[in-house]
Every structure is written in structure tokens, then in C-alpha cells.
Amino acid sequence: MSGFSLELKDVRKSFGSAEIIRGANLQVPKGERFAIIGPNGAGKSTLFNLISGRFGISSGDILLNGNSIRNLKPYEINRSGLSRSFQITNIFHRLTVFENLRCAVLWSLGYKYSFWQRLNGLKDAQERAEDVLEQIGLKRRRDVTAGLLTYAEQRALEIGITIAGGADVILLDEPTAGMSRSESDAAVELIRKVTEGKTLLMVEHDMSVVFGLADKIAVVVYGEVIACDTPQNIRNNQKVKDAYLGGHAPTEEHA
Ligand SMILES: Nc1ncnc2c1ncn2[C@@H]1O[C@H](COP(=O)(O)OP(=O)(O)OP(=O)(O)O)[C@@H](O)[C@H]1O
């Protein structure tokens, strides 16, 4: 068994005649937190869509815990232990906070929506949802309709939905986008707590979040991973300085 949660092997993706991902390679060891950074249009979201099965890859391979997932559907990848959040908040606004979490737990267990009527009897799902509610700090908002939460609370709920199924590999797409400084500081703490012992891969533009959370940073430029290293080494990497910010290394000050 490999020590990697996720491996990208010469992954390529074309849309029509345009090759967007051009031989991406990446190895994410189990239990580490990785950030993917890069200029706008570099292919970060596309990589997420390939890893989570939303798009099929054109060539190469993606391994989850040592097994190829290249031909799997998104829900099959999810049930193999990988869960992702989206850049756009992806919650059911008319359900309560608790119902959103319970729904995510049941979905991960393979229940269908039509089972909702009989949910109270499903004790494990109920307990798991209560547990996640506590972890994301929304216990006192348990029975509030999700659409009435503040934006930061909605993003916290979304993180809860992402981890609710118990996946070991978590993908977060710009988890602090649109947040104030204090909200994103709180989000960093939340992400750190709920991903303890798990593997995290996140796309993030806010460098203070990236440098505050990531064990390693992968830099994507024109559909390739041009460097993957510790935050300190990325800061001093000349190739990254040249390609990424016109001669300046990414630092916590760059948003
Ligand atoms: N479904 C699609 N069809 C055609 N082109 C696409 C599709 N999805 C993405 N692209 C193109 O792929 C390139 C990379 O887009 P992507 O969204 O992955 O970049 P990104 O690094 O996430 O950018 P940003 O930081 O701005 O979110 C862009 O040129 C985009 O127009």
C-alpha cells in the first residue's frame, strides 16, 4: 500500500483543441495538508474537477489510496473516501443546519432522499450529524434554516457537509473566499481542527491562509505543477518567483 492519499501521474485534460492540464504530477502523502496556488486560469479548479470525477481526464492517471479512480463517477470517488467542497456555497437553503448535515451523512452512507421521512430512526446518522455540528461550532444554530445563516456560517456549514461522510481525503475549493480577515482566521482554525489526521488539498488565493495552514504548497502554472515544497522553500524558489508573480515569491501579504 502506498503512503500517498492522492497521486496525479502525468494527468492531461483538453477541452476541444485546448490542452488545459498539461502533464500534471503530484503526490500527496497521507495526513498532510496541501495548498494548490497559481495565477488565474492556471488550471487549479480544473484539477479539482478531474480529481473529484466531475470531468474525465484525457490521459494519465489519478490514484486515491493507491487505486486508480480515473474511470469512476463522482459519487463512486466520494464513497471511496474523497470529499470536496465547492467555490460556490453548496447547501440546501430551506433545510435547517442539522438537516443539511444529516443529509450529507446519509448521502455518504448511500441512502436516497426518499428516506428522509424515516430519518429519526437512523441513529448512527443522527449522532454523526450532531458530532459534526459540534465540530463546526454551529450547535446553537442547529435548527436555523441554512439560508438565514451569515455567509461565514454558511461556509462553515459547507465544510461540515464536506467532512460529514467521514472521508479521509478532503478537497476544499477557496474555503475563505469572500470572508473578512477575522472570518478567514476563524475558518483557518476550523479547517485545521476538522482535518486533523486527514489529508487536505485546497485551492486558495489568500496567501495568509495558505501559509497558515499548508504543510506543502503545489504551484500550478499553465496546467503543470511547476513546484511542490514546504512554504519556506516555495517562498525562496526562483522558478516560482519567475513564473508566478513576475519575479516576486508568493508571501502571506499577497492576497
Ligand atoms: N469546461 C470547460 N470548457 C472549456 N474550457 C474550460 C473549461 N473549464 C475550464 N476551462 C478553461 O481552463 C482554463 C483553466 O481554468 P481553471 O478554472 O481551472 O483555472 P483556475 O486556476 O482555477 O483559475 P482561477 O484562479 O481564476 O479560479 C481557463 O482558461 C478556462 O477558461
TrEMBL record:
Domain spans labelled ABC transporter: 6-247
PANTHER family tied to this protein: ABC TRANSPORTER ATP-BINDING PROTEIN (PTHR45772:SF3), CONSERVED COMPONENT OF ABC TRANSPORTER FOR NATURAL AMINO ACIDS-RELATED (PTHR45772)
Coiled-coil regions, chain positions: none
Keywords: ATP-binding, Cell membrane, Membrane, Nucleotide-binding, Transport
One term of GO molecular function: ATP binding
Pfam family, one: BCA_ABC_TP_C
Protein's UniProt name: ABC transporter ATP-binding protein
Provenance organism: Undibacterium rivi
InterPro entries: AAA+_ATPase, ABC_AA/LPS_Transport, ABC_transporter-like_ATP-bd, BCA_ABC_TP_C, P-loop_NTPase
Superkingdom assignment: Bacteria
